[in-house]
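Work through what follows:
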Amino acid sequence: MKGPGEEGEAPGTPMMRQWRAFKEAFPDALLLFRLGDFYELFHEDAEIGARELGVALTGRDAGAEGRVPMCGIPHHALDTYLPRLIRRGYRVAICDQVGEPTGRGAVERRVTRVITPGSRIEAALLDERRATYLAALAPAGRPSSARLGLAFADVSTGEFLALSAPFAGPGADALWDELARRAPAELVLPEPWPVGDATDLVRRAEALGIPVTRRPAGEFEPEAAAQRLHRHFGVRTLAGFGVLDRSPEAAAAGGLLAYVEHTLQGPARQLTELRPYDPGDYLRLDEATKRNLEIDRSLDGREEGSLVWAVDRTVTAAGGRLLREWLLFPLRSRKAVEARHEAVAALAEDGVSRGRVRRLLSRSHDLGRLLARVAAGRAGPRDLDALRRTLAAAPEILAAGQAAFRGELLSAAPDLEPPSGLLAELEAALADDPPASLAEGGVIRDGFSPELDELRALRRGSRERLLALEERERERTGVRSLKVGYHRVFGYYIEVTRPNLASVPPDYVRRQTLAAAERFVTPELRELEERLLGAEEAERSLEAELFERLSASVLREIAALQRMARALALVDAVAALAELASERGYTRPELVDEPVFLAEDLRHPVVEAILGEGRYVPSPVAMDGMEARFLLVTGPNMAGKSTYARALALAVVLAQAGSFVPAKRARIGVADAVFSRIGARDDLARGESTFMREMVEVSRILRGATERSFVVVDEVGRGTSTWDGLAIAWAVAEELALRIRARTVFTTHYHELTALEGRIPGVRNLTMAVREDPASGTVEFLHSVVPGAADRSYGLNVALLAGVPRSVVARAAEVLEELAEDKAPGEAALADLAARAGDGAADGRAGDEAHGGRAARQLSLLPPALGPRAPHPLIQVLSELDPDRLSPRDALALLYEWRRRFGKRGG
């Protein structure tokens, strides 16, 4: 229903002029314009809304503009439709009616909220187990010496972070590592960009899937940004937060705060603390490693199949978010990791306490996100009820688990005590089971406010009088179908059906005519209506006022309540890791400073979770940092090389995240970074081919790894020609083993690289065990790691297992044998084979059985300069030649013979 005074407005309507003013103020947002019981969209917004929401596109007279497109959604269905727009990347401005219709001009309205991908606080718009970050980048300084400030805010919980890194040079990757790990839903940049062109920044952000928003550069100017932060926190300096006033961190944080206030259309009261942090405190995981190790998403983009999916046993949404953060930001401080291990160990050993704590936690609510809605003035009665229940549960959680709290959990205990008096106030004021909306009434408990109780009694008495009036009028008129009702526009009425109109008394005054009845009013009914409506309005107003006072009481304690929210999440995350250890047989790793990795029966946590208990084949790990520092793993496809390499890297991540690891025993040296180069895929968003992407990842490893890093390189060199790939793989292996000396697992099909063992200290050959049946030519991959080198790759066997036709496999066996006989095929040899292929095709197809099980030797493609191999036949002949015994004629004959034998192969 449209608001009075706006329905059927004349041309040049005040309402449409009002809409245009708001649209000009928020040009990049879809404007949801409250009009009575609907939110309407107009012009281009309406065309987008109708298409995206699946609602009818209609029109409305807009005066001189003529009829303009319009569509709408019921105001009570906003939470249903809004997520569709936000998920599709639209920004939405909510324009609400804040005044009452007067019949003169447009109803007073204002934009109460701007919802963008990164500023969501509404529960319907959030993934409860993922943080929703908004980020901002800002430079402070001149282009030649600038550092970039990077700030993050999770508006839905109040987390507010800042850091800085070099604008260019060796440290610049840190910013992109942080953006990749936190994966903000939106990145805010100054417009114009103060230090040159921002095109590359925007392109890199969008390649990470992060939409970019531009805001006036003045909001990021260091002095203005610092002053905004001063006003927000009520301080004169940011030094108390560990941030310099004119620093890049302050510029980014101040600019971000301005944008948050813009989206909330008011103060961001949930941002109670600015926390600077140093990326160097955490294990480095760059974008490629996060993706390759499938930390929080599998390679196909789903959560299922990721490390988080395999190990998360949390029972609360906040605990799940914290555990995800631990896995994305493992610690580098051995002392801090051991404190977390101590906490996990205590709860792992005390199953009774752990069970009680987890049961109580499951009854708590997402306190951090509740508080953000209270701070933004968008909390409903059930939000405060959930807050009350959580405050009541917190001391019980502490009592149930305190005897088993050790290590990191000791710091959480004090924060689990509710702020003094708040719980009692909520218990006294809130009804036991309040409605979802304040407008429904019944939010405040009877007996809390004498004034409210009096208004409720008046309303209830008036309703009883209405029922009594209805009964008297039925008796008076003799019309048993007579009824007293209420219409939101016409008020209370007495309704009489048309066949009974002759019985209507003279004092009835007609109020409304219907097709089948007439509605009347009497002086007594008017008096009752005034009393009842007045009491109802006064009751609603007073209840809203009391609810606001409760919300204000919560806000006064918001900092303490946010600490409680973090403490509850911490207890849940630690208890979940203890549950995982107990359930899966994970053990506490021994952390040391030496660069070692020794483990017995190590398992891959994700593969084990997929296969089920007892089906995964565990493997030993022996990297002592001296004799064995670089593990060169060869073996067939499908035998488990990549799984073994990933298992080691994930064990490092788990150990430094504070988790136990899937092994019988483990001794792991604390790493400063984990790097991985795994898989082959194009990156179309960056315009990079498979090989280019591979080389970019290799480059990051070689530039970023140190002696304390842990590196996984899987099948490097596959994306280019065999010789180029082999040469690159050899050089990368030498660099990692000789110069960088990082703990490395290097898997390859280039068996020539096994010659590095014995030549370079710390290199050890491993291979995947295979059981072969010589009689049938079949192989069984045992998925276990053993010392030594593979003699071949079993590619033909894998082709048969994959269902490649036997005739094709047989022809491949022929070609492989011919290549092996030629020793070192160059382009000429391959052309010669191609010429002979047509003649031998029929014979090859006829010889399926003869050749299908033939064992072919692994072809050596290593140039003499790169490693040992049988000498080239020409070199062999020359070494046996005595030139002193050759006549000129014999020498010439030999040259012609050598040209015939070796010239065609390119030598």
Q: What stands out?
A: DSSP finds 28 helices and 27 strands in the chain. The CA atoms of residues 687 and 693 lie 9 Å apart.
